[in-house]
């Protein structure tokens, strides 16, 4: 997002004081990754049911963390730890309230079609030509991209990491699968592509991509005192990978609206939602 647009968004923020939900605004920052879009839309509607006005603010990952740290956003449910966004956490950990995981069992790495003869990142040392010497990536500032650069160095691979976006990466994956070609893409779970395509992660014997990740909820300092009801909902907000990937896949269908997908999930999981708000 351009700096000017970001500035305008932050200027819309205003201080909160303890009061009833009616008329109070909750500002949720998120990255426009498919999992964050699904989760943020659910939380937005749950808070709206409780009478809050909710503003969802799409930002780059670094700006999302910064917005929560400065109080220009109240919370986010899109913080990947302990590895993917570790640099942001180390820089800002004393200025945020890390509430904890809302999704467990998450993962990052490189994925290939299930039919690929590639099984390990190490295979690319001798078989990089099968994927045109490329690893198809997303936005260059993303944590998975920084770790991918580290993996290329750690394994001594003759491959190039290609910048792009979530959309361009999944488009390249779709084209390769349709043409029955091999491809390596930066990947993370949860992601809708695992619900739509038969994929596998490449083994990472050097553990450059770490073990399981978690997707975490962050709040600005003082939210617990200013909006205790919101804070309590944030603490209870949890999703599972299977549900998230199903929602993400639905959101990729032509004409789909994330708000409608979220509403359907809430209706189908009313008991879970009621547990968050009680």
Automatic annotation (TrEMBL):
The record's keywords, sorted A to Z, are: Cell membrane, Membrane, Signal, Transport
What GO terms fall under cellular component here?
Answer: ATP-binding cassette (ABC) transporter complex
Write out the annotated subcellular location.
Answer: Cell membrane
ABC-type glycine betaine transport system substrate-binding domain spans which residues?
Answer: 24-267
Which is a Pfam family this sequence falls into? OpuAC
- Which BP terms in the Gene Ontology apply to this protein? choline transport; glycine betaine transport
The protein's superkingdom reads Bacteria
The record, for Gene3D superfamilies, names: Glycine betaine-binding periplasmic protein, domain 2 (3.40.190.100), Periplasmic binding protein-like II (3.40.190.10)
The Gene Ontology terms for molecular function here are:
amine transmembrane transporter activity; carnitine transmembrane transporter activity
Identify the stretch annotated as signal peptide in this record: 1-21
PANTHER family membership: GLYCINE BETAINE/PROLINE BETAINE TRANSPORT SYSTEM PERMEASE PROTEIN PROW, GLYCINE BETAINE_PROLINE BETAINE TRANSPORT SYSTEM PERMEASE PROTEIN PROW
Could you tell me what this protein is called? Glycine/betaine ABC transporter substrate-binding protein
């Amino acid at each position: 997002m351009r700096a000017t647009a970001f500035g305008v968004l932050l200027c819309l923020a205003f201080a909160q004081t303890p009061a009833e939900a009616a008329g109070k605004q909750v500002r949720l920052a998120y990255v426009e990754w498919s999992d964050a879009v699904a989760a943020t839309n659910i939380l937005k509607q749950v808070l709206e049911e409780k009478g809050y006005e909710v503003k969802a603010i799409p930002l780059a990952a670094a700006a999302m963390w910064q917005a929560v740290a400065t109080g220009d956003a109240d919370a986010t449910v899109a913080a990947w730890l302990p590895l993917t966004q570790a640099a942001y956490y180390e820089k800002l950990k004393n200025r945020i309230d890390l509430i904890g995981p809302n999704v467990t069992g998450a993962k990052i790495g490189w994925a290939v079609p299930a039919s690929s003869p590639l099984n390990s990142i190490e295979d690319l040392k001798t078989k990089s030509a099968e994927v045109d010497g490329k690893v198809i990536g997303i936005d260059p500032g993303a944590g998975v991209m920084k770790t991918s650069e580290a993996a290329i160095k750690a394994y001594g691979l003759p491959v190039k990491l290609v910048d792009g976006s979530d959309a361009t990466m999944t488009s390249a994956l779709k084209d390769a699968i349709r043409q029955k070609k091999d491809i390596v893409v930066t990947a993370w779970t949860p992601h809708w592509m695992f619900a739509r395509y038969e994929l596998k992660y490449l083994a990472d014997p050097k553990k450059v991509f770490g073990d399981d990740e978690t997707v975490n909820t962050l709040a600005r300092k003082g939210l617990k005192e200013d909006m205790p009801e919101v804070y309590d909902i944030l603490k209870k907000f949890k999703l599972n990978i299977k549900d998230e990937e199903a929602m993400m896949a639905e959101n990729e269908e032509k004409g789909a609206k994330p708000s409608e997908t979220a509403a359907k999930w809430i209706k189908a999981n009313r008991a879970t939602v009621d547990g968050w708000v009680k």
